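In the design runs reported in the main text, the only information available to the sequence generator was the tokenized backbone. The following block is the verbatim input for one such run; it is reproduced so that readers can re-run the procedure and compare outputs position by position.
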């Protein structure tokens, strides 16, 4: 006898794991805002980094488990806006821009608007069947990378506490620049098509362990290095994409 085919009514706990990770990331972003309001900026910045790590693994786990869903995709997009479009500029505002006579708040709004436009553009592009996309590249920097880059002034201040803080105007300009990079057409590697040969897997795992240990031991210097390394990668991807052989 044929079984009725209808929507799935029960899910295993393993299938719900990606959505659980997304909810945990939302909690991390909201808690980061709370710490920012209270003036605890170091844990606030680290919670944004934790939200970025969770964002990087929840979608991949969903694809590995075959539990991807439209609800999960929408939940992930909303979480990205909160964690990477709202929390980081707010924390920067509480940290250094409250005395900038409204200029700081304008920059916060601009960054948030750029982030939501970037997410909307990505969602439309992902759902469109007419556009031909190169899966090896994103258009503009992704929102988690934008959050990592926009907080660079904080990393510099925490790593070099004996140096004066950057002027508010420079922090504002930096925030605007990163926001514009979010909605730019600059190609950035998506890493989705990156493959590692069997011979190099051990070196890759050692590198991951090294970066993890560095983050736990020298968090702020490591984050500065990651930001600078990512900028170099963006420049290199732009040059590589514009070569005649890649057209």
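Verbatim output:
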């Amino acid at each position: 006898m044929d079984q009725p085919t209808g929507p799935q009514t029960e899910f295993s706990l393993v299938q719900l794991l990606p959505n659980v990770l997304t909810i945990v990331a939302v909690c991390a972003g909201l808690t980061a805002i709370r710490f920012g309001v209270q003036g605890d900026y170091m844990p606030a910045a680290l919670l944004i980094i934790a939200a970025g790590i969770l964002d990087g693994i929840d979608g991949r786990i969903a694809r590995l488990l075959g539990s991807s869903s439209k609800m999960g995709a929408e939940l992930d997009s909303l979480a990205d806006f909160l964690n990477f479009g709202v929390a980081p500029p707010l924390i920067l505002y509480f940290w250094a821009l409250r005395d900038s006579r409204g200029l700081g708040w304008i920059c916060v709004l601009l960054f948030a608007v750029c982030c939501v436009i970037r997410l909307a553009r990505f969602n439309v592009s992902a759902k469109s069947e007419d556009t031909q996309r190169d899966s090896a590249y994103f258009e503009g920097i992704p929102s988690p990378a934008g959050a990592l880059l926009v907080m660079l002034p904080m990393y510099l201040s925490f790593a070099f506490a004996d140096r004066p803080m950057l002027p508010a105007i420079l922090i504002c300009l930096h925030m605007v620049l990163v926001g514009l990079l979010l909605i730019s057409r600059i190609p950035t590697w998506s890493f989705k098509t990156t493959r590692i040969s069997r011979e190099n897997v051990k070196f890759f795992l050692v590198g991951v362990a090294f970066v993890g240990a560095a983050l736990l031991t020298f968090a702020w210097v490591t984050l500065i290095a990651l930001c600078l390394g990512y900028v170099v990668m963006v420049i290199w991807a732009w040059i590589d994409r514009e070569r005649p052989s890649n057209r």
